[in-house]
Amino acid sequence: MADIGKLLQYGGKRIRALCVITWNEDEVRPWVIAVRPSILGDGSVWEELTPELDPVVVEALKSLTLAVNHNNTISAGYEKDMVVSCPLALHDASVPMDDEAMQGWALAHGWSGKNPERLAKYVEDINAGKRPRCRPMLRPDYVDSLRRRAADDT
Question: Among 8, 21, 51, 78, which residue's Cβ finds the most Cβ atoms within 10 Å?
Answer without folding.
Answer: 8
